[in-house]
Amino acid sequence: MNLPPSLIHLEFGTAEKRKINLWIPIFLLWPFVLVLLIIAVPVLLVADLVLTAAGLPLNLFRLICGLLDILSALKGTLVSVDSRRKETVIHITIL
Protein backbone atom coordinates (compact mmCIF):
# COMPACT_ATOMS: atom_id res chain seq x y z
CA MET A 1 0.00 0.00 0.00
CA ASN A 2 1.31 3.41 -0.90
CA LEU A 3 1.15 6.04 1.79
CA PRO A 4 -0.12 9.52 0.92
CA PRO A 5 2.25 12.50 1.06
CA SER A 6 3.00 13.87 4.51
CA LEU A 7 4.99 17.06 3.86
CA ILE A 8 5.24 19.78 1.24
CA HIS A 9 8.50 21.72 1.02
CA LEU A 10 8.25 25.16 -0.59
CA GLU A 11 11.42 27.04 -1.42
CA PHE A 12 11.24 30.66 -2.59
CA GLY A 13 14.18 32.85 -3.45
CA THR A 14 16.31 34.71 -5.90
CA ALA A 15 19.78 34.03 -7.20
CA GLU A 16 21.30 36.82 -5.11
CA LYS A 17 19.22 36.66 -1.93
CA ARG A 18 18.77 34.06 0.72
CA LYS A 19 16.09 31.47 0.03
CA ILE A 20 12.99 31.10 2.17
CA ASN A 21 12.12 27.50 3.10
CA LEU A 22 8.61 26.63 4.17
CA TRP A 23 7.64 23.15 5.38
CA ILE A 24 3.91 22.40 5.36
CA PRO A 25 2.88 19.31 7.38
CA ILE A 26 -0.11 17.95 5.46
CA PHE A 27 -0.15 14.77 7.55
CA LEU A 28 -2.16 16.83 10.06
CA LEU A 29 -5.02 16.90 7.53
CA TRP A 30 -5.30 13.11 7.19
CA PRO A 31 -7.47 12.56 10.32
CA PHE A 32 -10.02 15.04 8.90
CA VAL A 33 -9.95 13.26 5.54
CA LEU A 34 -10.48 9.94 7.31
CA VAL A 35 -13.54 11.31 9.13
CA LEU A 36 -14.93 12.63 5.83
CA LEU A 37 -14.42 9.23 4.19
CA ILE A 38 -16.17 7.49 7.08
CA ILE A 39 -19.12 9.83 6.66
CA ALA A 40 -19.10 9.43 2.87
CA VAL A 41 -19.15 5.60 2.83
CA PRO A 42 -22.87 5.22 3.66
CA VAL A 43 -23.76 7.98 1.21
CA LEU A 44 -21.72 6.27 -1.52
CA LEU A 45 -23.33 2.94 -0.73
CA VAL A 46 -26.84 4.39 -1.10
CA ALA A 47 -25.82 6.21 -4.29
CA ASP A 48 -24.40 2.96 -5.71
CA LEU A 49 -27.62 1.11 -4.93
CA VAL A 50 -29.77 3.83 -6.50
CA LEU A 51 -27.61 4.03 -9.62
CA THR A 52 -27.56 0.25 -9.99
CA ALA A 53 -31.36 0.09 -9.62
CA ALA A 54 -31.66 2.81 -12.27
CA GLY A 55 -29.56 0.77 -14.68
CA LEU A 56 -26.38 2.85 -14.42
CA PRO A 57 -23.78 0.55 -12.86
CA LEU A 58 -21.24 3.07 -11.58
CA ASN A 59 -18.87 1.95 -8.84
CA LEU A 60 -18.20 5.03 -6.72
CA PHE A 61 -15.96 3.10 -4.33
CA ARG A 62 -13.55 2.37 -7.17
CA LEU A 63 -13.58 6.08 -8.00
CA ILE A 64 -12.60 7.02 -4.44
CA CYS A 65 -9.88 4.35 -4.36
CA GLY A 66 -8.53 5.60 -7.69
CA LEU A 67 -8.39 9.17 -6.40
CA LEU A 68 -6.52 8.02 -3.28
CA ASP A 69 -4.07 6.09 -5.50
CA ILE A 70 -3.44 9.22 -7.56
CA LEU A 71 -2.88 11.23 -4.39
CA SER A 72 -0.43 8.61 -3.12
CA ALA A 73 1.45 8.70 -6.42
CA LEU A 74 2.22 12.41 -5.90
CA LYS A 75 4.87 11.50 -3.35
CA GLY A 76 8.31 12.47 -4.66
CA THR A 77 7.00 15.07 -7.12
CA LEU A 78 9.30 18.06 -7.68
CA VAL A 79 8.03 21.21 -9.38
CA SER A 80 10.51 23.98 -10.26
CA VAL A 81 9.39 27.37 -11.53
CA ASP A 82 11.94 29.88 -12.83
CA SER A 83 11.30 33.34 -14.23
CA ARG A 84 12.72 34.35 -17.59
CA ARG A 85 15.04 36.89 -16.01
CA LYS A 86 16.07 34.40 -13.30
CA GLU A 87 14.88 36.81 -10.62
CA THR A 88 12.61 34.41 -8.78
CA VAL A 89 12.94 30.70 -8.23
CA ILE A 90 10.24 28.50 -6.68
CA HIS A 91 10.71 24.82 -5.88
CA ILE A 92 7.85 22.65 -4.61
CA THR A 93 8.65 19.17 -3.34
CA ILE A 94 5.98 16.73 -2.13
CA LEU A 95 7.39 14.28 0.41
Condensed summary:
The chain is an alpha+beta fold and 95 residues long. It has helices spanning 30-53, 60-73; strands at 7-13, 20-25, 78-82, 89-94.
Plain-language structure description:
The chain has 95 residues and is an alpha+beta fold. It has one domain. Helix content is 40%, strand content 25%. It is built from two helices and four strands, in the order ββααββ. It has a four-stranded antiparallel β-sheet with strand order 2-1-4-3, with no helix packed on it. A hairpin with a 6-residue loop joins strand 1 (7-13) and strand 2 (20-25). The longest helix has 24 residues, at 30-53. The chain starts with 6 loop residues before the first strand and ends with a strand.
SSE map:
Elements: E1 7-13, E2 20-25, H1 30-53, H2 60-73, E3 78-82, E4 89-94
Antiparallel strand pairs: 1-2, 1-4, 3-4
Key attributes of the depicted protein:
single chain, 95 residues, alpha+beta, four-stranded antiparallel β-sheet, 40% helix, 25% strand, elongated
Strand neighbour order, sheet with most strands:
2-1-4-3
| Overall helicity | 40-55%
| Mean pLDDT value | 87
Write down the secondary-structure element order. Answer: EEHHEE
Q: Give the biggest sheet.
A: 4 strands, antiparallel
Number of domains: 1
Total of helices = 2
Shape: elongated
State the distance separating the first and last CA atoms.
16 Å
Low-confidence stretches: none
Q: Any idea what the radius of gyration is?
A: 20 Å
Structural class determined from secondary elements: alpha+beta
**What portion of residues belong to β-strands?**
25-35%
Number of strands: 4
